[in-house]
Amino acid sequence: MRGAGDPLTVGERIAFYRRRRGLAQSTLAGLVGRSEDWLSKIERGERDINRLDVLMEVARALRVSLGDLLGEPVLLEDDQKNDDVPAIRDALMTPHRLSKTLFGPSISPEYVDPKPVAHWTEAAWMDYQGGQIGRVVAVLPRLVKVAQQMESADVDDAYRRQAAAVSARIHHLGATTLSKIGEADLAWIAAERAMHAADMADDPLVLASAARSGTHALLATGRFEDALELGNAAARYLARRMRTGDPSALSLYGMLHLRAAVAAARHHERATTNDLLNKAEDAATALGHDANYWQTGFGPGNVRLHRLSASLDLGDIGFVVDHGSDVDTDGLPVERQVTHLIDLARAFSLLAKDQDALQVLLSAERKSPQLLRHSAIAREVVRTLYRRAPVTGGKKSSLLLALAERCRAVSES
């Protein structure tokens, strides 16, 4: 069911998995505390599931992942055909990672200088933030392999800590990128590797940064409570070790609260969400401006965007529509700008302001075609717009049809 080019709606996927499990509509509806009429309308496309926590309940009842119901793509291409996710999988899942006892004697570790690898890694991070996901996919296999080489080299404690810090950044990038393109299971492997390397680095900032990768992977799989727990634990850990006024620590501390706030909002915990957003705002005020320490893009503007995103998940759609266009995002990374535009388009769609939603999606696509076209949420919004669009002269809107085909939200004509 999963894969690029899958034109099914969420409701159609629910019906598919329900039938595959041999469940009647009444049975599945009962498992999630809803009426049979509600589920029937969802499956027929007459209404949408607007809350991710409700969709997660359905996924659990069907014993599938959140990604299975969202239809997240597993293939990614750009103009250079950078679509080699299998190469990332091979690099992450090499058997040599499983046991030093079994494979150690057969490996000849070679010294790798961590400094140029660190520069290479940060360049890839900038590509990610700039929306150039294909470039990141292209370099990740080599980066992961180099990280493994550094970790296997037995030099001295200082080298091991430096190599582990770089490895944590590489695997963090891998987890974040893989979450973005729908490879949630691989993202979890990368996040676990990032956290393990960060432990070895013995640096509070490295560990706090790596924890963000864990929240990304957990959010991608719908494990909102676990993401909230991890974000809060990492923020508490960092708070005890922060130097007063350190902009890097402030940025990571604030960003961990923002990630935890996203998890709380998706779990529909309004009071917790507001408390976490307020803590992040305090950190942003202390920082004083939007910056990009440790590739966080953190600052007052990013907090405002997260308030809007949380409002969307909490069901405050009108607030998002009224204020979503007022936030100045020019100083933020392209990735963050596009994520905000997708949220805004979703809000417009939920209020049936379809022309507004379409224009926002086209604006997001101009900023980063790859981020827009490989977003499961954006694809679902496009499907909804396409389903509701009037037919004039036997055809749908040419702009909408073209976007739907580029996003692979409908079958190409």
Automatic annotation (TrEMBL):
PROSITE patterns the UniProt entry points to: HTH_CROC1
Top-level taxon of origin: Bacteria
Domain HTH cro/C1-type: 14-69
Record's GO cellular component terms: cytosol
Listed CDD domains: HTH_XRE
Family matches, as Pfam families: HTH_31
MF (Gene Ontology): DNA binding; DNA-binding transcription factor activity
InterPro entries: Cro/C1-type_HTH, Lambda_DNA-bd_dom_sf, TransReg_Diox_bact_type
Keyword field contains DNA-binding: yes
Keywords recorded for this protein, A-Z: DNA-binding
Protein name: Helix-turn-helix protein
Species of provenance: Actinocrispum wychmicini
